[in-house]
Amino acid sequence: MFIVTPFLTKEPSTYGIYAICISVTIFLNYADLGFLRAGQKYAAECYGRGERAEEMKYIGFGTFILSIFTLLCALTFLFFGLQPESLMKGLDTPEKISTASGLLLILAGFTPVTILQRMVSMIFDIRLDSFVNQRISLAASIITIASVFYFFGKENYRIVPYFFFSQSINFIAVVIWLWLAKKKYTYNIKQLLRSVHFDAVIYKKVKGLAYSGLYIMGVWIIFYELDQIAIGKFLGVEKVAIYAIAFALLAFFRNIYTIFFSPFSIRANYFIANRDEEGLKRFCLQLVSLSAPLVVFPTIAFALVSKPFIMSWVGANYAESVDLASMFSLIFTLSFMTFPASIVLLVKVRIKEMNIIATIQPIIYWIGVICTYSFWGLLSFSSFKLIATFVSEFYFIYILIKFLDISLKEFLQKTIYPMIIPLIFLITALVIADVYLPYQKSKINLLIVLGTTGLCIGVSFLIQYMASSNMRIVAKSLIGSILIKNSN
């Protein structure tokens, strides 16, 4: 993100087209209609009991549903590729129309790769080995990053060939995933592929959680995924470019924390499989305590340095993105509580509460946007996304404290109080540093901003370590387990 985006943003209107095309790919994350996600929960329980054949049935059924709707998405992208003007406003030159069409047609051609990617990813995820396929993804990303110097070097701005190349590299990475899964786990891929069909028994087992997931995905799309498309349709592609830069920071935090918390979600299913309620409570409380500084410090830090960060990263053309980026960064500040709470709701299949929380966000968000965007502009989208998130997060916190069966005072003592001194240092240090940080676009200036921010975050972690006995215990335990593993 840090390396590639400055190259892409050299032409704001073209980058706006690219951002819209990328935003529609988000719908592929929901093409399983909740059945693959629901199946993963039960597949993880099967793995915990050593039932590989049953595990394959759940993965295969979810992949079957995913395949149907992914192919429908591919046809939709194909239609928009042939008629890009129907998707976005501001395509007023043949070059812009050609760019939008090329990107969407490439997207349509590579969309089926998503089916294989999601299916194989589940094999690694339920074994808590997602780091294995992520290493391949990391190598693929490095190759893609290196390619920008070819596609965008000197006076070049070949965004369509770049997109085709990046999609091709992703496809090769997924094929390697498949080979690794077969080799590492002696996984019977043929048997897995034979399991990709409709199964009435599996459907009956997962439908309750899946349909709830489908509803949640629907309202999540309305809340989280439609804003760039709406901005592109009604405000134009250049406004999308400004919004997309700020939104990239939100996507960055979302991806990082999703990666961090996903293995814990799988692990929580093991407690359910073994009917260990008390173990699940201890696990969740430790997760909240451990993740609090990992979540809070970076989100607050980037909110404080959003101006020098945006200016040194993509330049003054995107100055309007600064306030948006600050608010987007703060959206995930309380994720150390909301992610564990959502894990509890998922593994306990508490469908009603999941639906209530999911419904709150889009209602608040779109009512606020509709009422204010005519005079607030893009700030309306970021402000009400932050407000809607905070409102739902307080409900998450109530659910979490009730599940853990501890008092609010005890909960705050274990999670919030140890962060007070580190936060005072972090905020003070970055407010002072902000005066001296560079505001001109350059690689060196970006490194200075990131380095200063990272240093302040690192010192805050050190203060947290010294101030929290629980953090010291957890850190020593983690270091000990790593040393034992390496010695073996």
Describe, in plain words, how this protein is organized in 3D:
- 41% of the residues are buried.
- The two termini are 37 Å apart.
- 82% of the residues lie in helices and 0% in strands.
- Helix 4 (52-82) runs antiparallel to helix 5, helix 12 packs parallel to helix 15 (321-330) and helix 13 packs across helix 21.
- It has helices at 4-8, 12-24, 35-48, 52-82, 94-110, 113-125, 130-151, 159-185, 189-194, 200-225, 227-234, 237-273, 277-304, 306-314, 321-330, 335-347, 351-376, 378-404, 408-415, 420-434, 443-467, 469-487.
- It has 2 domains: 1-225, no CATH class; 226-488, no CATH class.
- By secondary structure, the protein is mainly alpha-helical.
Helix tally equals 22
- The proportion of residues in beta strands is under 5%
Largest sheet at a glance? none
The residue ranges in which pLDDT falls below 50 over 5 or more consecutive positions are: none
Overall number of strands: 0
The radius of gyration over CA amounts to 23 Å
Total discrete domains: 2
List keywords for this structure.
2 domains
Give the SSE map.
Elements: H1 4-8, H2 12-24, H3 35-48, H4 52-82, H5 94-110, H6 113-125, H7 130-151, H8 159-185, H9 189-194, H10 200-225, H11 227-234, H12 237-273, H13 277-304, H14 306-314, H15 321-330, H16 335-347, H17 351-376, H18 378-404, H19 408-415, H20 420-434, H21 443-467, H22 469-487
Helix pairs in contact: 2-5, 2-12, 3-4, 3-10, 3-12, 4-5, 4-6, 5-8, 6-8, 7-8, 10-17, 11-12, 12-13, 12-15, 12-16, 13-15, 13-16, 13-20, 13-21, 14-15, 14-21, 15-18, 16-18, 17-18, 20-21, 21-22
